[in-house]
Each structure stands twice: as structure tokens, then as C-alpha cells.
Design goal:
homodimer, 351 residues, alpha+beta, Aminopeptidase, Alpha-Beta Plaits, 2 domains, eight-stranded mixed beta sheet, four-stranded antiparallel beta sheet, 9 helices, elongated
Chain lengths: 351, 351
């Protein structure tokens, strides 16, 4: 497959969509992207696995990273792409090959951008973070990620979604003593003991802090519950799986302390943790971008890879074509207007 | 295998124990029992599947059924039998080949009992009730079960345990609305909604009614709980599995009405129901047996096949060698003294 960077951004999106690239199968698309970028003399290209980085080096005062992942979730009878009434349908149209196509157009058409640019096309975002190409790059080549500002082209309705909330999972465990249910008074029922765990969750009042003018919204939810040995046994264990989504003004340590205090008196085990990302809209590079896009930035509630940049001290926002509500759906699609709008805004801002 | 009915009851127990008869593999043991019983001219023998019935027909004023199942739970490295310090160890010693051996001794030695006798050796008690040989007999040959009194030789420490409690299972279900846990306020968490279900179970106070001088003890317990779609989804369903053990003064309809009222406001589905059995110790035949055994009868908390007799209007008790706490255990065993005591008491009462 050969990409034609002189084609319009919608044609380019279709080419990318019709190149199968479910996670762990990114070789073909990464080869095509690398090959296309290597034809552009103003870019220095680096390949790591199926992650491709292309940089200008013009000695500009600022450097901006523009990043997008090349993989998709599994096929769901939604290929090849189909263009209908100004909407492009198909796997990866929304998440996030529309964004990737915009990146390719910027790379090809901006030989002399007003800020130095680093394009990162990366592998394996839709699977376990251990495979994530961007995360790997933060470890293998942190210098390639150095920048004053980063734009992650995840679908956000062609508007700015800033920062992201952190996510933490804990198991809240109650214990008891087994007994035959015909003589239940000889045991202690661990499921009954979980009543106050659920009662506290019912009483939870979400914090909605304002950060850089954006209103975040925390959430504390049981996402699973399990307990039981057999139909005639008083169970000796019950586990409530809880997911805490926390605003980016909390550190991981804060989040953990909060949850432990919330479930005081119960056994709490942290099973997963990913810090949030502050919007960073007070930074000069971010401010300029917000002005260029216009409109009101929104807070990002879900966790995204912008947090990887925050860890490196680089302010980052989500800005990409497509409605995130349709990501991972069978009827995934992206409005052509979104893709064109993102291309136009970024070109203007970077010219 | 050939059973020697002239041997003592312990030797006979060992012969039965060493004849493998895990549920659905009762042919060999049923053949041996049938063959041995057919040598006794005072008995009329009927075979149904691997269930064997033997009856005297002396025109006595009363008829007593003595029943025991021939199957065992699965082998657990606990065969062959081992006799040590007056205790017989091995699969089925307690549940319930000690009782079966007593039955065989009564059948062989009581050619002219003072009450007509019906011995029922039945298959498949330890598995789904659809296979239960005694239950099948209540449908195919109810006349074979006609009696004034029934003794089920289930392990009960060689003492009388009267009646049995009923058991009922229900699913208590809460529903909600799915949402991504990053925007949890857009959904309704079904697990959180289960809080009052568990709270009510915590507040439950067990009824302990006295029936025929025996104190029963009800119980209402969550034996399982499940809910959850994925780690990042607010779940739309939670199911609490509840087991109600009810005293035999409640009918099935009473039990269901009680549980539905208890969980008023929640969706309740009955998944299993087995009525209890009244002790029936006020009946003349039962009274005479209690006097013969001596000591105080105890209430039976767990459900047993005595309920099959109650359904037919026949008062029934559990009376057999072995401690029921060791039934289904790897270290199952029966004290020789229990087996001998049951044989002696029954022979005296029936001579």
C-alpha cells in the first residue's frame, strides 16, 4: 500500500481506514506511513517498532508534538469504508484515522511551519498499556517527545478537550465465616457485610472542581461485585470492584488516600492506577492554540494519552475529528467537515 | 459381589462400603442387595431401576417404612474402608451405608416383626432430585410407600432428628442504566441499588418456632451476588442469590409470600423450592418410636428425603448411625457403636 500525500485529507483518511490495522497488526500501515514521510526532505524520520516519528528542525522558538495512534479495536463487520452524505463510515474513521490523515497532510504541506513540529504515529493504543507505542517512546526516546505543547488527535468533535481525569481501580473485600446455609447462624455472611460498602457508594457526592476554567466531574462506582461458594453455603468472601475517576488536581497518592478514607474499616486493594492530566491551558503555547481554535475548551472526563505528556511536563490537549461516543462502536463514523476543519485550523495556526 | 446377611452389621457395612456406588453407578450394589433379599422367603421384592423395595405382608395393624439410599458422593481417595479403634472409615460409611447395613440385618433377622415392614434401598439421592429413586417411586409406585410411619436412616448420631426445614432460593434483581464510568452520572448503578437488599438481610431476625416440642431455626442468607459489565462501565444489573431455610410450619406458599414481602420493592424470582416436613411426633407410631429410642428428639435443620414422606401424609423421622457433619467429607466415618445401637433399638422396637 502506498499513501498519496498530495490527495485531499478525506481521500487520505479512506486510504488509512481501508488499511487493516487492528492492534498488534500495524506493520503494513506503519510501513506506508514511514515510506510516505521519508519522501519529505524537511522531515527527519525515526522508526521504533511500528511507531513512526517525523520531526522538523528549523530552530523555531517553540516545538509542538502532534500525535495519533495507528491501531484500531477489532473488526466488527465495518470495513471497507463508505462515504455517504458527507460522513465517512468504517472501523477507525473516528478513532482515529481521520486525525492521522490530518497529521499526514500537515507533515506534507507545512515545509516551513512557524513552530517546529514532531509527528508521532504510534502503535497499540487500544490494548494493555504495556504495548502502547507512545508509552514505550517515553522510555526509549524521551528526547523525541520534548516539546512546549502537545496535541493528541483523539476524537473530540474537532474542538479542544483539555487535560483528562485519572482512573483508579480498587477491590473492597469483606470476609466472614463459611457455614451450611441450613445452619447459617454458625457462620458469618461476607455478602451481608458488604451492605455498608454499597450504602457509602450510594451516599457519595461527586466533587466537581474548576481547574483553568474547566469543570471536571469525579465519579466513584462499583463496576463489579462477586461473592458466593455454593447455593447452600454461607459465603466467607465478597469483593466489590470500585472505579474512581478523579479530577486532574488530585495526584495518584491523593486519590488513593481519598478512597482508603472513604472505605475506612474495609480491606482495600489497589488493582490499577493511571494519573490524570492537568489542562495546562495557562501555558503560553496552549493559550495560543485555544485562541486559534476559538470556542470554549471542554474538560476531558475519560483518561487518554495526554497524561503521558503531562508526566513529561508537556501541556497537552485532545483535538481531533469525530464524536468520541462513536469510538469502538460498530457504526463508527466521522463527519468529513470535522476532518477538514481540524486540518484547516492546524494549518492556519502553524503557518 | 455377594452379600452375606448372616454376617454381623459391621462386616455388612464394610461389604457395602467396599462396593463402589457413586451416584449413577449403583447397578452392582443394587444387584447384590436385590439378590440377597430374594433369598428371604418372608419378603416380596420389587425392583425399579436401581431401587429395591422389600416388604413383609403379615397383616399387622401398622406398617413402617425403613429407607436408605445406596449411592455416595464422588470418591475422594477414601476407599477401601478401614476399621480402626471402633470407627469405620471410608466413603459412604456415614452417608449412609451403615444405615443400609442395619436395614439388611432387620430384613434378614425379623421374619415375624410386630409391624409390617417396607424396606426401600434407593438410587441417586446425592444428585439432582430429578434422578432421586425415592422421588421416582412416589410417582411410579405410591402404593409401595403406604405406611403409618417412616424411618429414614440418614446419619443423625443414632438419635431421632424429626421433620426437616424447607429450602427456597430466589434471585433478587436490581436494574440501572449503563454508562461509561468516566461519565458515571449519565447512568444508574445497579450494584449501588442493591445496598438496601443487603441492609435488609443484615437486619433479618430469624424466627425460631417450637413445633411438637422441637425448636426450629430459620435462616435468610445471600449465598451469591453478581454484577458488572466491564471495569469501565456503570453496570445495569445486579443479582443477589438468596436462600431461605424455613421451619416446617410454613407451606411453600407462606415461604414465598414471606420472602416477597421481605424484599418488597425489588424484583424477586423463585429459582428453587422444596417444602419442609413437620416432625409429626404427635402421631401414635412416631410416639411409640420416640419412647423406644429414648432421649430427646432434635429438630432437623437441613432438608432431607423425610419431606417426600410428608408429601404422602406419612410421618417420618431421620434416625441413622454417623455424625452428619462428616457426610461428604474426605474423612467420612461412622462409629461401630452407632451402627450396632441403631440395629439393637430397631430390632427391639419391631420384635
Amino acid at each position: 500500500m502506498q499513501l498519496d500525500l498530495s490527495a485531499d485529507v478525506v481521500t487520505l483518511t479512506r486510504q488509512l481506514v481501508d488499511t487493516f490495522s487492528v492492534s498488534h497488526h500495524e506493520q503494513e500501515i506503519a510501513d506506508a506511513v514511514e515510506e510516505a514521510l521519508r519522501t519529505l526532505p524537511h522531515l527527519t524520520v525515526t522508526r521504533r517498532g511500528h511507531t513512526v516519528v517525523a520531526r522538523t528542525d528549523l530552530g523555531r522558538a517553540e516545538r509542538v508534538v502532534v500525535a495519533g495512534h495507528l491501531d484500531t479495536v477489532p473488526l466488527n463487520d465495518n470495513l471497507p469504508s463508505r462515504l455517504e452524505d458527507g460522513v465517512l463510515h468504517g472501523l477507525g474513521t473516528c478513532d482515529m484515522k481521520g486525525g492521522d490523515a490530518v497529521m499526514l497532510k500537515l507533515a506534507a504541506d507545512l515545509a516551513e511551519p512557524n513552530r517546529d513540529l514532531t509527528f508521532i504515529f504510534y502503535e497499540a493504543e487500544e490494548v494493555d498499556s504495556v504495548h502502547n507505542g507512545l508509552r514505550k517512546l517515553t522510555e526509549s526516546d524521551p528526547d523525541l517527545l520534548e516539546a512546549d505543547f502537545a496535541i493528541l488527535m483523539e476524537p473530540s468533535n474537532a474542538a479542544i478537550e483539555a487535560g483528562c481525569q485519572g482512573t483508579m481501580r480498587v477491590d473492597v473485600r469483606t470476609t466472614g465465616e463459611r457455614a451450611h446455609s441450613a445452619r447459617s447462624w454458625k457462620g458469618v455472611n461476607a455478602i451481608h457485610r458488604a451492605a455498608p460498602v454499597l450504602a457509602r457508594l450510594n451516599d457519595y457526592v461527586a466533587r466537581e472542581p474548576e481547574i483553568d476554567g474547566l469543570t471536571y466531574h469525579e465519579g466513584l462506582n462499583a463496576t463489579g461485585i462477586r461473592g458466593g461458594v455454593a447455593g447452600n453455603v454461607v459465603p466467607d468472601e465478597c469483593v466489590v470492584e470500585v472505579n474512581f475517576r478523579f479530577a486532574p488536581d488530585r495526584s495518584e497518592a491523593d486519590a488513593e488516600a481519598y478512597v482508603r478514607a472513604f472505605f475506612d474499616g474495609f480491606e482495600v486493594t489497589v488493582t490499577d492506577m493511571a494519573a490524570g492530566a492537568l489542562p495546562g491551558l495557562d501555558r503560553p503555547a496552549a493559550k495560543a492554540f485555544v485562541d486559534a481554535v476559538g470556542g470554549e475548551p471542554a474538560p476531558k472526563f475519560g483518561w487518554t494519552d495526554v497524561a503521558q505528556f503531562t508526566k513529561l511536563g508537556v501541556p497537552a490537549v485532545n483535538f481531533g475529528p469525530g464524536d468520541p461516543m462513536f469510538a469502538h462502536k460498530q457504526d463508527e463514523h466521522v463527519p468529513v467537515e470535522h476532518v477538514e476543519r481540524c486540518e484547516r485550523i492546524l494549518k492556519e495556526w502553524l503557518s
